[in-house]
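Allow me, if you will, to draw on your knowledge of protein folds for a short while. I have a record of one protein: its chain in single-letter code and its fold written as discrete structure tokens. Could you please explain, in whatever detail you think fit, how the structure tokens follow from the sequence? The record follows directly beneath this note:
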Amino acid sequence: MSAANAVVFLLDVDNTLLDNDRIVADLSDHLAQAFDDRSRDQYWEIFEALRVELGYADYLGALQRYRRGAMNDPRLLMLSAFLVDYPFADRLYPGALDVIAHLGRRGTTVILTDGDVVFQPRKVQRSGLWDAVEGRVLIYLHKEQMLDEVEQRYPARHYVMVDDKLRILAAMKKVWGGRLTTVFPRQGHYALDPANSAAYPPADITIERIGDLIDVDFSALPGTPRAGRTQQEAP
């Protein structure tokens, strides 16, 4: 397929391919064990304040701010090691890599995620997702605002976006319209929050888990070879 005719599959990371809720739980447990419950709660307060300020999750940035109140505590050095060396590959959802390989036979797969410039790339690399998409990784502060750049880097007749946040899917659909098929895996606390589901229109396709994407038929999309499967439309 030429670039002008290709379908590009855009894949989010956190709670889409990777169980980020489990990572957060592990970090929270580690904070309580290495420090105490009060320090753990203080870290998450800083984290949430920074998320509001920046618009994305910044785990290392929150740790840097937390350091101001515990400047001489050597345990902070080990906490940063816990984050950087975390075994992210163990937190991939079942079937995540199989889905990427499956979609790669029908178009171009690209990781499209939000995050900082240090921790998020590390997460994508150590989880194996970077290699799975052969280095086609885009990380922005607000990906839904960067669609012109996405299109310049990976031009296509049609896009498919897989994301656990209906807010992101709705914002992208508003820009690309019929050129975009949205896929909503109901995984993680955002996706399972009834308030989030009620606030935005449903995706074009809803699945219960990322592994179910193998059973979705994308053969009707422009530039996609026929797969011979049945599409699961969202209710």
Observations:
- Residues 227-235 have pLDDT under 50 and may be disordered.
- The radius of gyration is 19 Å.
- The CA atoms of residues 31 and 40 lie 5 Å apart.
